[in-house]
Amino acid sequence: MLIATWNVNSIRSRLSQVEDFLDEVRPDLLCLQETKVEDKLFPKTAFEKKDYQVKTYGQKAYNGVALISKMPLEDVRLGMKGEVNEGTDSIFFDEQKRIISALVDGVRVVNVYVPNGASLNSEKYDYKIKWLAYLSKYLLSPLKREEPLCLLGDFNIALEEKDIYNQNRFNNGIMASKEERDSLKNLLENNNLEDVFRLYEQNSGHWSWWDYRSGSWQRDEGWRIDHIYLSAELIENSKSCMIFKKARANSRPSDHAPVLVEINWPPSEEEEEEDTYVFG
User: Could you tell me the CATH superfamily of domain 2-263?
Assistant: First the structure.
């Protein structure tokens, strides 16, 4: 199973780039964030012509997430409502369309677009911390259902110092504050999830996001804020994880690059030869 995550920063602006990515890489599942379009205006037909199923959870001009899959999407769930029994909180956190999930070949894939937070003194920062705490509780539901869990998307957090090109300049600022990092670490610990990228690459210098400003791409001054977290049974059967950096070099690109994970799922003792993208 080949799964990709990509903050496309407007699906209608990057549609041809996403189509090219699907033609080249042929993922079984592509999870998109920041689609910035209402569901009724999402360009589903372009993907359905390629034999992909499409499920969306979007809003006009902001946020938005989508699943584009070669495999059946079962038990699709929009937002966090119904998973955590805490009064009206789920309605509050679902006003912004930031999470969609589905069962894909028995794996619960949860695609998230975590709030940016704006600045440490902003109300949006407080919202981000509360949103992460609520997400942590939400994720307990698939674990209780004993569903293998793949949590992925744009987290707007550099979890470790080595996830930023200039640690001294940006540590303890937005997307790298102690409270943000602790919130995400607690979420991962509470739900027994592991960063699959770090299973294969321990060094710094691997980025998934480059600011549009100040020539960040040209100088390769990036951050790793797009993550894929897996439960134990998926980690044990993972084969590779990489950042598809060349997508950031497109004309009029998203400021993010796709991240891909390959998992031997369902697990088998002898893997069949598959026609999938060759990493590296």
Answer: Endonuclease/exonuclease/phosphatase (3.60.10.10)
Q: Which two tokens stand for residue 161?
A: 């110092």
> Is the backbone peptide bond immediately before 266 cis, with ω within 30 degrees of 0?
yes
**Residue 74 φ then ψ, to 5°:** -110, 150
β-pairing, 74-78 vs 149-154, is unpaired
Q: Tell how far CA 162 is from the center of its chain.
A: 19
Q: Cα–Cα distance between 132 and 186 in angstroms, integer? A: 9
Per-residue pLDDT reduced to its tens digit, 190-211: 999 999 999 999 999 999 999 9
What rounded mean pLDDT belongs to the chain?
A: 93
Exposure string for 146-184, b = 16+ CB within 10 A, e = fewer:
ebbbbbbbbbbbbbeeebbbeeeebeeebbbbeebbebb
The 10s digit of each residue's pLDDT in 6-64 is 999 999 999 999 999 999 999 999 999 999 999 999 999 999 999 999 999 999 999 99
Query: What are the residues whose beta carbons fall under 8 Å from the beta carbon of 10, sequence distance 6 or more?
Result: 34, 35, 36, 37, 254
Q: What pLDDT, in 10s, does the model give residues 257-279?
A: 999 999 999 998 655 455 545 44
pTM check: above 0.85: yes
Residue 134 to residue 63: CA distance in whole angstroms:
18
Query: What does each C-alpha distance from 124 to 20, 114, 129 come to in angstroms?
Result: 35, 11, 9
Residues with catalytic function: 113, 154
What is the residue extent of each domain of the chain? 2-263
The structure tokens 């307990």 sit at: 140
User: Do the beta carbons of residue 154 and residue 96 sit within 8 Å?
Assistant: no
